[in-house]
Design goal:
InterPro entries: ABC_transptr_periplasmic_BD, Vitamin_B12-ABC_binding. This is Cobalamin-binding protein. It holds the Pfam family Peripla_BP_2. Residues 2-290 form the Fe/B12 periplasmic-binding domain. By secondary structure, this protein is an alpha/beta fold. The protein is 42% helix and 16% strand. The protein has two domains: 3-119, Rossmann fold, CATH 3.40.50; 166-299, Nitrogenase molybdenum iron protein domain (Rossmann fold, 3-Layer(aba) Sandwich). Strands 7, 8, 10, 12, 13 and 14 form a six-stranded mixed beta sheet that branches.
Length: 303
Amino acid sequence: MRVVSLLPSATEILFAIGAGDAVVGVTHECDFPAEARTRPHLTSSLLPAELNAAGIDRHVRASVHAGSSLYGLDDAALAALEPDLIVTQELCAVCAVSYEIVDRAAKRLRGDPRVVSLEPSSLDDVFATIAFVGDLVARRAEADAFVAGLRARVAALRERVSRRDRPRTLVLEWTDSPMSAGHWTPGLVELAGGIPVLGNPGANSRVLDWGAIAAADPDVVLIAPCGYDLAKARDAVAALPEPGAHALRGLRATQEGRVFAVDGNAFVNRPGPRLVETAELFAAAMHGFAPPVTGVMERITGE
C-alpha cells in the first residue's frame, strides 16, 4: 500500500503503528517523527510569512469568508506518487489542506485511490482513530498495542492527580484576538487534574473577550497558539497589544507565576498520539510535576 498523509497527526499515527514504510508523501508540516521529514512534501502554506498574530487572524478570517484555501496542494507531485490511500481531514479549514481540494485532486488520479477523512474531537476519538488507521493499513494489532500503552499512561496520570487540588485552567489557542481551546483540549485539562475555564469541548475554538478572561481570573493560563512552536508562542505573548497585555498582567495566574507558553503546534493543536504527552505537560504546569519533555513549555513572567 502507498499512503499519502495530508495531516500531521495521521503521519504520527502511521509511523507509531509501524506503517511508516507505506507513507510516500506528507505535508510540509509533518515533522514528527524525524523520518517523516524525509518524505516528499505535497503542500505549502499560502499565508504571508511576515504576518504577526493579529495579521494572521485577519488573513484567516478573510480567506475562510471568501472560501479560499490557506494551503496549496501539489497535484502533479500527488499524481506521480500513485497513492492507494490518501488521509486528510474536514475538521478545520485553517489547520490543514481542505477536504474539498484533496477530493478534487484525487478524482483526477489514476487508480481511484481511497480518500479517508479523520475527525477526532476528543482523546477517546484519537484512540479510535488510531485503531481505524490500523485497519486501513493492516496494522490493527500494532495499533491496539500502541493504544493500550497510551491508555496505561492516561490511567497513571489520573491516579497521580486524583488527590490534588483542581486549578481552574484557561488554555488559549490564539492571542490576538484571544481564542478559547476547543475540541479535545478541555478534556486534556480535566485529565491533567484541572477545571477548564472558558473552553469549548467537542467544538471549534471561539473568540473570547479580554474582559471575560479577566472576570474568570483562572488559576493557571496555558498559551498554545495554533501552529506556533514555543519560541513563536513566547513572541506572541510578548507582542500582545493593549488591552490584552494589561488584562494578562492583571490576572492572579500571572502574579503567581502560573502562566505558561506551550508549543501548540507539536502538542496541543495536533490530535495525534502526543495528546497524552500534552495532558502530562498540562499536569506539570498545574501541579509542579517534572515535565515529560523539556524545551516545549516555558513559564511567562508578568514583567
